Each structure stands twice: as C-alpha cells, then as structure tokens.
Amino acid sequence: MPTQPSKNLETFENPNPERDFTIRIDVPEFTCLCPKTGQPDFATFLIEYVPDQLCVELKSLKLYMWSYRDEGAFHEAVTNQILNDLVKATSPRFMRLTGKFNVRGGIYTDVVVEHRADGWTPPTPVSLT
C-alpha cells in the first residue's frame, strides 16, 4: 500500500494571518471501533476553525483520521482527542469539532467540542437584510 495511516498532522503557514476567516472541513468517512464490542463505528466530522499562524494540511489530516480505523474509542473520548491533537498542531484562534456518529442500537450521538485561544474574541457577525 503506497500510503499508511499516521498520527502526524502537518501544517502550512496561514496565507492571511492578519484576518479572521473560517476554514470548514468535512470528514465523512471516519471509522473507529466500539471499545465494548469491537464493532465498527462510523462518523462524519466537521472541523471549523479560525487559524492563527498555521493551517492543517489536508492529506496529513486524511491519514490522521484513518489512523483511528482499528482503534477502540468511545465517541466522547475520540472527539476530544482529535480536537486536542488539531489544537496542538495548529494553535488556532478558535476551533470547533463536531462528531456525528451513525446510529448504533437506535441511538445517534453528536459530540461537539471547542477550543478558544486566550484573549481571542470573535468578530461581530454582519447581517445583510
């Protein structure tokens, strides 16, 4: 196999660090294993962040997400771990990670976790009505 899963998140310099802007990334094919049964869990992750000096490189993100495929993890734990790793790699002004886990036993689970850099205040939204 030419590529392998990896926990290494690569970054690149933010091309516009003087401006707050939002990057949204959908990861629709996340899989891990239920730590109780060993059965696969499937999820879609939405990453929303306001970068500071660094942005996450997408190929490394894909390989990073793939690295969970054979790991047992509770939904809450894996969502928080992914946010911790992304924050450690990029030091964003703001980051929100939403894990939307597919149905298991008739129950859907959404886990939403956030990081906000000390001193960062979101800009006031502009409403054009």
Keywords:
129 residues, alpha+beta, GTP Cyclohydrolase I, domain 2, four-stranded antiparallel β-sheet, two-stranded antiparallel sheet, 2 helices, 38% strand
Write the layout of secondary structure elements.
Layout: E1 11-13, E2 23-33, E3 40-50, E4 54-56, H1 58-66, H2 75-90, E5 94-104, E6 107-116
Antiparallel strand pairs: 1-4, 2-3, 3-5, 5-6
Summarize the structure in words.
The protein has 129 residues and is α+β, with helices and mostly antiparallel strands. The protein has a single domain, classed as GTP cyclohydrolase I, C-terminal domain/NADPH-dependent 7-cyano-7-deazaguanine reductase, N-terminal domain (GTP Cyclohydrolase I, domain 2), CATH 3.30.1130. 19% of the residues lie in helices and 38% in strands. The strands form 2 sheets. It has a 4-stranded antiparallel β-sheet, covered by helices on one side. A two-stranded antiparallel ribbon has the order 1-4. Strand 5 and strand 6 form a beta hairpin. It is globular and about 45 Å long.
